[in-house]
Amino acid sequence: MYPFHWVPAAGQRHASLAEKPVGCAYPTGTQVETLCQQEVSADNSEVAWLWGTCAECNREARRLAGVEP
Ligand SMILES: [Zn+2]
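Above: inputs. Below: predicted complex with zinc ion.
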């Protein structure tokens, strides 16, 4: 498993290193710090998972996963 989790928030799919609450996702309204250094409020609605991936989080996630861009 990778050390980060994807979290839809503020219109984009971000990634975060924040500890996940029990379950499979951050509940809507959870304040998380993203890999792109933003403090966002998670949105766990179904449509939120269809948002585009944050480019900066994607780049950082790939780096953490050891995958070269
Ligand atoms: Zn981001």
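The radius of gyration is 11 Å.
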